[in-house]
Amino acid sequence: MRRDIHYEEVSGDLIRFIGRCPSVYHVAAAIQAALLYAGFTALSEDEPWQLARGGKYVVTRGDSALIAFTIPEKGSRFHITASHLDSPTFKIKESPELHDNGYVRLNVEGYGGMNMASWTDRPLSVAGRVIVKNGAGRLESKRVAVDGTLLVIPSVAIHMERSINQGYQWNAQTDMLPLYGLSDSKTPFMDVIASAASIKREDILAHDLFLYSRVSGTTWGAEKEFISAPRLDDLQCAFACFRGFAAADKQQTICMYALFDNEETGSMTARGAGSTLLSHTMLRIGEALGMSLDETMAAMAGSFLISADNAHAIHPNHPELADSVNRPRMNGGIVIKYNARQTYATDGFGAAVFKDLCEKAGVPVQTFTNRSDMPGGSTLGNISSAQAAIPTVDIGLAQLSMHSSWETAGNKDTGYLVNAAIEFYK
Fold first, then answer.
1. pLDDT in tens, 314-332
2. pTM for the complete prediction?
3. Is residue 303 within 8 Å of 252, Cβ to Cβ?
4. By CB neighbour count within 10 A (0-12 exposed, 13-18 middle, 19+ buried), where does 23 fall?
5. How far apart are alpha carbons 30 and 27 in whole angstroms?
6. Which strand ranges, in their side-by-side order, compose the sheet holding 41-43?
7. If we measure between CA atoms, which residue out of 90, 123, 129 comes closest to residue 108?
């Protein structure tokens, strides 16, 4: 085990990071700001790139997808980690206010597959971005986060819904609309958003706004062995890979750190793993370095991608839901994920490469497979590797309550992935 990682300190930093980043736009902006502070050069996709050996760069797309990369003095192969920054939540619809029965509610729709019950009776607020026209007449994106509890989704009292504990069927259009105020409220919702963004309401042309949980992350347990927080899937992996990317001595390969959006809705968007962002970035790097298309394609084929997205830990109350042999536990190490249907990209070669890497880093590994009669979820590894044909392994960190508004993971596992990422990029 490496001695340069203090697991509790890393977990504390993760919890603070999640608390400061209530939306995908805040996550991408925080990572980009840290990179620029560290001397990275910002690139724009709509301008030609001037790249040089020894340089370090970052490019974003749509405010919520990001790739950072460093170019060594020698070497042309790529070492890549990819994670996603989105989590299941509720998106605010256009014309959001609903006035009825003496209340003002907000009209929302589900984003991704969430555990709806976990969103009820919790302190909630709103974060995202608004699009405005600036003084020069150009459209501009502004991040916004309403501080303080603004909303609650009230559950129905058990006296009025006796089936609530017998498999109640939640309906996003009727059960999950958050309460904003009483009908005599004098503060329209969009006025609150404008105030939080320090702009005039009439300047808002459009918005991408989402609910976020106000429940703070924490470390807990008799031996502080657990962490719980909103959006651990997949900010735990995104944060750990970034820590490793920032700390590693990146001298041997073109090192890339990728953050994608929209994994929870299938990744097939301009900012998702199914987009051109990764493949086009690699092609532009090759061209800027004077490599032919054939040389760049050869370099890609000899590269490696770690798709990092959290995994299911064996459940303490329902061990029967896990595979009979492959049963990951929290703080047991990084989880290699397998699936014969190829919802995970791991094959024998990818698994062997990653196991060898973790052995060098002194990091424990474990394996996850679904029960054969339970399909399970998917991730971005197989999608991104289909866009850029790179040998890939799908890994994650073991957690409970995936897709709940508040998730639980192991206190040591974030540090394990930091160490593995340092070794990988090194």
1. 999 999 999 899 999 999 9
2. 0.94
3. no
4. buried
5. 5
6. 41-43, 56-61, 65-70, 254-260, 78-84, 304-308, 392-396, 334-337, 365-368
7. 90
